[in-house]
Each structure stands twice: as C-alpha cells, then as structure tokens.
Amino acid sequence: MKSRMEELVAILNDASRQYYQFDNEIMSNQEYDALYDELVALEKETGIVMAQSPTVNVGYEVVSNLPKEPHPSPMLSLDKTKSVDDLRNWLGDKDGRLSWKLDGLTVVLTYEDGTLAKAVTRGDGVIGEVITANARTFINIPVSIPEKGQVVVRGEAVISYSDFEKINTDGTYKNPRNLCSGSVRQLSSKVTADRHVRFYAFSLASGGGDFRFRHEQSEWMRSQGFETVDDVPVTADTIAKAVEDYSHRILDYDIPSDGLVLIYDDIEYGRSLGTTAKFPRDSIAFKWQDEIAATKLREILWNASRTGLINPIAIFEPVELEGTTVSRASVHNLSIVKELELGEGDTISVYKANMIIPQIAENKSKGKDETDDGQPRKLFGPPEKCPVCGWDTEIRSENGIETVHCVNAECPAKMIKSFTHFVSRNAMNIEGLSEATLEKFVDEALIRTPADIFRLEKCRDHIVSMDGFGEKSFENLLAAAEKASHTTPDRLLYALGIPNIGVANARVIARECRNSWSRIAGLTETELSGIEGIGEIMAKAYVDFFAKTDNINMIEDLLSVLTIDESFEEAGDKLAGKTFVITGSLEHFENRDAAKAKIEELGGKTVGSVSSKTDYLINNDISSGSGKNKKAKELGIPIITEEEFLEMIK
Known about the structure:
This protein is of the alpha+beta class. Helix content is 34%, strand content 21%. A hairpin with a 2-residue loop joins β13 and β14 (324-330).
C-alpha cells in the first residue's frame, strides 16, 4: 500500500505542477479526482500521510519573473464532494449560500483610500505573485471605490467561453482557465488587456464594516462596483433543487465553472469552526457528478491547425451524454495518447468535463493484449506525415509534454485565409462562415478541403453542440451552403485563389471559354496570353495551378459536390470600349459587383474613380453633391441612373 501511495503522490504532484506552473493539462479532471480519492482512501486505511501528499499540501511554488508576496493568512483549498446528500448533511440546520465555483485564477485585491493598491494571485496559497498592473486592465474591475478604508476582496479572474473562442484561434490553450492563467501572469499588461479578463468577487477578506451574513457582504461589494459570483440562499430542504437548477444553467453559462461552492451564511458561525491543515470548515465544494458512458474507440484523427500543431482527436461510437450525442473528444497531445495507451477498438469511458467538454475518462483496455472482440490490440501512434499536406511531422517535447507538429510553411491547414477567400461574397458566397467560424471548423477537423464545407450535414451533432452554434444557426449554414453549391464557372474559378486571378479576370476567362469548365481548366499559356488582361506571368501561374496533382484532386472533389451552370448566352459587345464608374446605392442590381459583371459581360470595363477617360458615371442620385458627381460635371461626363443604364443595354 505504501508504494502505491508514494506512486499516487508523485503522479498527482506532477499533474498539479504541470497544470499550475506551466498551464499543461496532462490528465483530465476526472482522472485526477479518481487518483486523489484513491490516495485519500489509502491514507485513511493506513493512517499514513506522506510529507508531499497533495491531501495536506495546498499547492506548489509559483515560477515566473513576477514579484512574490506572502498572503496575510493562508488561502486554503476547499474540501469537495459529488454528493448532494453530503451537502445536505454538511449544512444541517444552518442557512447557506450556494454559488458557482468559477474555473479561473484566484486573485486578492487590496484597496487603500478608495484606490486599487495591490493585486496578488493565490499562488501556492501562502505566497502569491503581484499582478497589480495587469489587474487594472480587467474589463469589469473598479480601480476606485467609494469606501476609503482598507478593503481586501478575494475573487476569481476568468475568461468567458465566447472570448476564449475568439482569442484561442491557434489552439495554444486547452481551455479558458489555461488562457486566463497565462494572461493574468503576463509581464506585459498590454497582453492582459487584450485578453478580456473579468473579475468576480466571492468574499470580503477585510474592511467595509462588520457584517453578520455573507449575503450582506455580497450586497456591499456590489455597492462598491464589484461584480460578484452569482449565489442563492439554501437550506437542507432546498439544496437539492438549487443544485439541479445550476446543473441546467451551466449548459448555457458563458463563464467557465467546474462546480459549486456551499458556504454558511452566518459569518461568525463559520469562523468558529476553524480549519484543517488544508481546508476551511465554513465552506465545501461540490463537483459535478459526471455522466459517464462506455463506448468503442474507432480511431485517432490527427488534426493540423494553422499554427502547425497536430492535435489528436478521439473518434468513437456515438453515445448520449448530458442530453446530446457525442462521438469525438480532444485528447490534447501525444503524451496523453501514450499515457492512456489508446488503441483501435478499445473500450473507453467518456464524459463531459464540467458538463460541457467531451473527455476520455479511462481506457478500460489499457494493458491488455486483446480487445473485447478478441482481436490483437493495435495502439495508435503519432502520424509520420501531416494529415493535410503530407509533409514529415516533428515531435517536440516541452516540460515533459510531447506534441506533434507540421513544419511545412505552406500547409493548407495553416492557410485559413484561403478558406475565407473561398467562401467570400464574390467567390462561393456562403453566408455564416466567418474566418473565426472557419478556424473552429478547421481546428475540430470538420473541414480539411473546400469540398468539406458542403458536407457539414454529417457533422450536425458536433457542430450544434459547439459554442455559438445551435440548430437554427446550423440549418442556416446548411441552407447557405446548399444555395452556394449551385454556382457559375467564373465564381468557382475566382474561389480557387489562383495567383492574380481576380473577379474581373475570372469573368473574362469564363466568357472566353463560353462557360465550359473543362475548357477553363485546360487553357494553355498561349491561349491565356491571348485573352485581354492576362499576361505571361499570370498565364504561367494559372497553368501551373491546374497541373498540380493536389489541385486536380481538390477540384475533382469540389465538382462532386457542386452543380455548375455552364449555360452561355452571347452577350455581344454593346459596351465595348466604354468605361464606367458606379457610385451610390443600387435598386435593380444586387450590389455593385453584379453591375460590374454585367458591364464586363457586354465588353465594357469599370474603374473606381472619375477621370477624363470615363464615359459614364452611374448614380441614381443625379443631383448629389458627391465628389464623383462634381468631378463628372466638371469634365462633362454624362451622369446616368441605373434605369437609364438598363435602357442602354436593352
């Protein structure tokens, strides 16, 4: 038993050190809790507690270049339970306050003479890091308060899920807590300011007068300009209903929370109970009882992000968790894949961390030679090639954590901009696919090629569970993709992002080829050079693009999901040699690009400014005093309305 205890102490301490010092998550919360509970049970059974046991040590020494400062009194951890009955028994006949247990970084704020004088992190509970300059950039923190005496407030610095999604586009941070910790402990306060850190007060350590109850303290802190952690009054009779209410609310709660906190409302009573070596006796944490399901692991999908980091994603047989269907979970890094000994066909248990994020809790096949089906186990290893571009991968190790990287600077996974161009208005025109959304889809391995954008129906369950998405927004996206899948040759040509082939050139080329896609894709350099506006360099880049095997495969894949309207009507050259400028709002054309397309289709061209070479200025407000109108009048250039233009080309 003692050897197992020593092993558990080493494992748990290393996990905490990685988590708190380096923001690295080497095991899930559930796995940590299971090992911690095992250690507690062994300590009770044997009566032995090791000197370095995490059951008696509050934390670890912080490592950074920030100044250190001891806390006036130790900041202890909270004892925890996953049982509502435990909460009821703990509360007894007393009144309590139940609140969110926010998942961020605990910070202590000290105010002198009404002004924020100091901010210190929790650190190891005894010594914290001074982050005063950074705290002043928290977006909801009062830097001045009405109270002029010394006031010390404790609270949690957090980053919301919505802000996390916007900031963490390169996948550097695994969750909002990691990002918040890295943001608050920056040496540059400008970096902190850019991260949208928020502060929620949860206790008044000193100052503000004498209060009998916790809820009075909360009301007073709000009167001083603080946002406080949301809490509700509870008794032994109402605690179960309150916990249930919170469990429903967390599904849409934008602030990260890893449970609840129950504290006695009577401050003096709570203080009279004292503390243990590690826990205060006036409060207790409630951790969500995760719904766990067993399933079969199908594969590890290695997904390349735009930073080059290749992340493992577990794909398993779909299971129902917390009311939604789940079929994939991030495994974070190569070290965790190795630690879990994941293999094809393994029986794994999965859950939703904090009832939100799918995670692997355990690999029940770990250590076995065969799967439950009697087949030899085949363990998953790191990919030798990048799953997107095919280049050799590179394994890097930092702080004992192994990660896989693609070193190809031109890897398509790194080129979010190309997808953004592909879905833009003048290209495929897919509404609802912003760059931020595309980054999410690429990071989740939902999109790897342009054609995947038109196959998102198969990812319905996963997308509707993502932050910022729901059934309605997903249906809107599907409708936009379906509409865009019926397109024209010039739109597709422009969407491919061939160097120097803009909207106008794509239209000219498509018209020259009479909208035949096979002719467009098969043009020679000589043929291209004969088209007005296409030079030799552009022609060579164009031909080279269509000659590359990867591009050929990508286009064939696209053609399998698109319907291209190759119909062609001879428009003539009614506007040949004519130059137009368009300004103001339009009524008959969808937008200016549509009007430009019509002009170019009829042999004319458009420019952005009026000059002596302009033949017509199109403006529905002829009497406008705009600069373009004035210039046209000065040069004697006709100003025509949209209807006059339509009459001209009838």
